[in-house]
Amino acid sequence: MTQPRKPPAVEFAGVHKWYGAFHVLSDIHLHIETGERIVVCGPSGSGKSTLIRCVNRLEEHHRGALRVNGVELSGAEAQIDRVRREVGMVFQQFNLFPHLTVLQNCTLAPIWASATNRREAEARAFALLEKVRIADQAHKYPGALSGGQQQRVAIARALCMNPKIMLFDEPTSALDPEMVKEVLDTMVALAEDGMTMIVVTHEMGFARRVADRVVFMDHGEIVEIAPPEPFFSAPRQERTRQFLSQLLH
Amino acid sequence: MTMPLDAGTRPILERSYLRIRGAGLVSSPANTLTTGVVALLIAWAGWTFLRWAILDAAWNGGPEACRIHAGACWPFISTNARLMFFGVYPQGLLWRPALSLVLMGSVVVASMIPRFWSWRLALAWVTAPTAVCLLLSGAFTAAPVSTNEWGGLPLTLLVWMIAFAGAFVIAVPLALARRSKLGGLRTAAIVTIELVRAVPMLVALYVSRFIVPMTAPAFEINLFVSVEAALTLFVASYLAEILRAGLQSLPTGQTEAAQALGLSYARTMQLVLLPQALRAVIPALVNLGIGVLLSTPLVAVIGMTDFLSAVREAASHEQEWPGCYTIAYLVAGSVFFAICFVASRYSRWLERRLRVAGHR
Amino acid sequence: MTDARVLPPSDEAPFAAIQRWWGGHALAQSLGLAALVALLAFLGHNVIASMHRLGMDPSLAYLSQPANFDISESLIAYHAGDPYWRAIVVGVLNTLKLAVSGCAAATALGLALGLARAAGNALLSWLVDAYVELIRNTPLVLQLFFWIAATHALPSVRQALQPLPSVYLSVRGVFLPSLEVENGSVWPLFVLFLALVWLVHYVHRRLQRPLRRYEWLSLAIISVGAAAAWIVSQNLRFTLDLPTLKGFNVVGGITLTPEFAAMLTGLAVYYAANVSEIVRAGLQSVTTGQWEAGRALGLSRGRILQLIVLPQAMRVITPLMTSTYLDLTKDTTLGVLIGFTEMTAVIKTSANNTGNAVETIVVLVVVFLSISLPVSALINAYNRRLARRGVVAK
User: Fewer Cβ in 10 A, N or C end of chain A?
Assistant: First the structure.
């Protein structure tokens, strides 16, 4: 029985990007299916953050095609905003809005960008804050929360928009070690719910547990893609081996 | 001298001694000398002022009393208060400028309380000056008063309020244009801002008085209107630069987070960036407000009777009231000082309060 | 792995840079700019038409006509009957004279205030703070009225106040001693001094080291010798021209008119408050960690100040000081309110006499723009350079 093929969630086809003369993304080919969990890793400067920032057009690619949920990313501002409403992002520096409460942070975009009415937006916000186990802080300001709590609020805020894809740009790198676990647990729960996720991270334990495929990038190129077991135990490329040996000493 | 460890039970004399010592007042011979000299200076100045203002002053009576007493001439103030504070506004209708002062004052005071910050307050900043203009001009009533007869403190406050409120309306788009990625728009904004800021306010007032009426000869442009227009544009350029600095100081992560949520440029500005930028530049805003208030006396150059020129007018009868210049200027200066000092202290209080409350 | 090296798009279309500058909506922007220009042209046309209707002749020809008014003080020779353009030049020179001396006086006074506050005496600091609050919260116009009234209250020349020997304060002006140089030019000595300063700066900056003791000694000997040789060879004579009371007048020395003295004092006192605040802000902007790091390295307080703290503080101080200087220059226009014949006053008198308000104001605006715009551009360029070095936020 043939099923109609759904378009991949994210599709990179020959994508290049330069910062001046520096080739930050070099001939990227990557297909990510709906429901897949991808972990992107690599040394700093390898272009992994730039890669996922291209997915919601925070960065523009210069050559090649990039399709998100079937929509080609280019040009028109209105179209980009629509794509962004379907793609959620969690930043390394949390980037919560400090002048709004936790609840207001979560309801801002649904009310003002998606024309949801206030009651519905707040109900959904509470439900998601409950899910990331921070609903009791709903009326506090971000400045009063710890790093781990802020990052969980950031995850809830992104989820309030009902995204089809979630991007995570080194979500635990700015956290104190004791708070990393609470955020990772939240992300694991999200993965188990079937969300399409692209995660840039150094947390290899998370990759082993949750990832469907691990992407290794170096100097702007994708060096190796493999499921976690083969990736960690038998990497095919020399560069991957070197990186892993530095990481897992 | 042995010091007990429990500071709370130290005798008061000891504690004061330690505080003086800590304040560096007597920590070295040079310091002791300085402290002595400065203390003497302050004492001498204070005593002279006290003598002039109270001991040798005339309190009741008329010009003769002032001729007798060498000190301050307080009767001058009581007799001429109306002229000093309200200018030449018709005497029977003084309730109008008085009411205007109350109206404008309450809007300004309300703006100082964070709890009242909302779009309704912004609306008040528009309606209050309009209401005052209608009130003072006596439109729709049997006793109209031309703008040439407006004067004194209400006029100063009105000029200030319109200029400041109007400046906001112009400055926000100007600041956004200044930061825009669109080259043509950005250049136009830069040219406007730099040109207006390079010109002294006096010259801007001259331009508004002489040249602006000639640009639209078909309309009889009221002096008040053309002055306000020039002043508003002037203040807007400074305000635009302040807003630009505020927006620049925000971390780029805020814009990115808003964009990642799918908010449009306009919504990002309205909901995320501008509220934070305004909070960040509150001291600069208050400074600008104080600076504009202290510059309003310049409108006298083109014929409007603001508070300071009303005072000067009243004090010009030097023959009749000897020594009235001193007390008149002192009163005028004190009024300005009181308003501006309170404003700058308020701005520090507000900054502290916003930081403590967990806002940025 | 990719095979061929893919190169960045370097051969851009020739208009791509312009396209990027427009940033999108190029047509709308062009139309908008065109509309703006059209509006300005329309307004300008209205102005000229109004002038014709009022019988005024829009041209700059009046500049060569004789100005029939006197100017109370001037750096160049001027008499009533000289052409208008000369009167305007006198006004501009007066403005510049006030601006330069005002900036110098404000800086000196402001630094003194800053030092007084940093001296560590709580009472003195309180006094300085009270001074700054008083000055900054009252209108400058009011302060200038105060100062001109003060100069009017000075005694007559015969009973002039003498705070310092050879300095006289009277209702007719302030008289100061001046230094006269005869028989030659003193400029080479200035050049020598500047060369010395540049040399020390060069050693500090490029060679990155302090001058050794023998270098200081030899520099001192050489410069003193050169200066002495110059003075002797030119037979320069330096005389002090002291103002002396002769009858009802004072002869000799430099005379400052009461209006100039009042403006100078008023502007200096007002802006000194600004300068002291700027210096404080600048020094505060350098974190105590910098001091501690310097002490940990074993540097003396002076060296820390010179090498670590002041360079960083200057980055905050310089743009603020330049803005203050610009504001002071713009505030010289207030001289028209107390009778000092700076540019605005001359222009105003010209406008009254010739009825040519518009051209005279245009001249005024052009002169101010040519002073302010280059200085602003320099400040902006300096800020951009700092932003590129990552010192301040762009």
Answer: N
Q: Which chain B residues are closer than 8 Å to A114 by Cβ?
A: 262
Q: Are C262 and C73 in contact (CB under 8 A)?
A: no
Point out the residue among C2, C6, C8 whose CB comes nearest to the CB of A21. C8
pLDDT tier at B225, thresholds 50, 70, 90 = confident
In the predicted model, what is the mean pLDDT of residues A152-166?
94
Write out A5-28 in H/E/C secondary structure. Answer: CCCCCEEEEEEEEEECCEEEEEEE
In chain A, which residues have their Cβ closer than 8 Å to the Cβ of B253? 91, 93, 95
- Chain C nearest CA to B143, separation (Å): 34
CA distance linking residue A89 with residue C354, whole number of Å:
69
Contacts of A213 (CB under 8 A, 6+ apart): A36, A38, A39, A225, A226, A227, A228
pLDDT tier, C6 (very low <50, low <70, confident <90, very high otherwise): low
Q: Is the pTM of this model over 0.95?
A: no
B-chain residues within 8 Å CB-CB of C364?
203, 206
A23 beta partners: A18
Q: A193 touching B, CB under 8 A? A: no
B322 pLDDT above the threshold of 80? no
Q: How would residue B332 be classed by pLDDT, with cut points 50, 70 and 90?
A: very high
Three-state DSSP at B186 gives helix
Name the strands in the sheet holding C173-176, side by side, starting at the edge strand that comes first in the sequence. Answer: C161-164, C167-170, C173-176, C254-256
**pLDDT recorded at residue C11:** 55
Q: Which residues of A fall within a CB distance of 8 Å from C9?
A: 18, 62-63
**What's the pLDDT score for residue B113?**
85
C58 phi/psi in degrees, rounded to 5: -70, 95
Q: Do A63 and C9 touch (CB under 8 A)?
A: yes
Over pLDDT 90: what percentage of chain B?
A: 31
| Distance between start and end Cα atoms, chain B | 49
Mean pLDDT within A65-83: 82
Find the closest chain B residue to A141 by CA distance. B358
The residue type found at C313 is A
Tell whether A63 lies on the interface with C, counting CB pairs under 8 A: yes
Angstrom distance (rounded) from CA A166 to CA A197:
5
Contact status of A42 with chain B (Cβ, < 8 Å): no
What residue has token string 């960040």? B280
Contact status of B266 with chain A (Cβ, < 8 Å): no
Q: Which residue has the higher pLDDT, B178 or B355?
A: B178
Q: What percent of chain C has pLDDT over 70?
A: 94
Count each helix (H run) and each strand (E run) in chain B, helices first: 17, 2
User: A160: which 2 tokens?
Assistant: 């309030």
By CA distance, what is A166's nearest residue in B? B260
How many percent of chain A have pLDDT more than 90? 64
